[in-house]
């Protein structure tokens, strides 16, 4: 029993690490990853009712939070150097992105099972397919046509925090993509790396306000349309996984990069499948 609890704690830490890392990778949604890893529903329930089973939920999410902080802050350091002035990751992060793709694909069977937990009808599969097509097309259009710049101040950093929080509450919304379009992504990563409180504090304020405002709404939507919501999430995950494959600049690719990316893709795929099996075995109730 003690070993089971240790394994469960480690699994939740790893999930948090991927969610935290995914939150700052362009094209990836922290909320979608939370759904992929089987903790989205419980997270929304907790955020919508903070005082219900408060300490039980706090203990459950401590390793998730620690993993998220680790993933967020550790990856933000190399991203400052890898993103550069173009505001999009280049060749140097291809390996990271393909490792993520592998991990997400590895956990897809678990997400598919979760989506059908309360029943699955043909229309739900149609919803997933249509969602995937529309989201993929929308992300392509946004990448091509959305390009603006906002001033960097206390209030726009609050807005950035709200966008990040929406990425956790609304599965499929990639906050990093929106911040790239607003020319805020690079400065945010630099601020996090430098521990700049003038950036971190308003981003945190915006995130908290957004979570408090939208968690109850998402809980209600899940209650009345669980299967529909999770099949929409399924479609969004498929589309966002496809779109991040097109995110890097492949112009400088060579055989070495292809080999390393392939190895990391397979490692991520194996990790995703392994975590799915462990989740079924040690699932924390």
How is this structure best described in words?
The protein has 285 residues and is mainly alpha-helical. It has one domain (2-282). The protein is 78% helix and 0% strand. The chain has helices at residues 2-24, 30-36, 40-48, 54-83, 94-115, 122-145, 154-169, 175-181, 185-193, 197-224, 226-244, 255-282. The longest helix has 30 residues, at 54-83.
Helix content: over 70%
> In whole angstroms, how far apart are the ends?
14 Å
Measured by DSSP, the beta-strand proportion falls in under 5%
Q: Helix-strand pattern, N to C?
A: HHHHHHHHHHHH
Alpha-beta content class: mainly alpha
List the domain count as a whole number: 1
Q: Would you tell me the overall average pLDDT?
A: 78
Could you tell me the number of beta strands?
A: 0
Largest sheet: none
**Helix count from the secondary structure assignment:** 12
Per the principal axes of the C-alpha atoms, what is the gross shape? Answer: globular
Radius of gyration equals 18 Å
Low-pLDDT stretches: 83-89
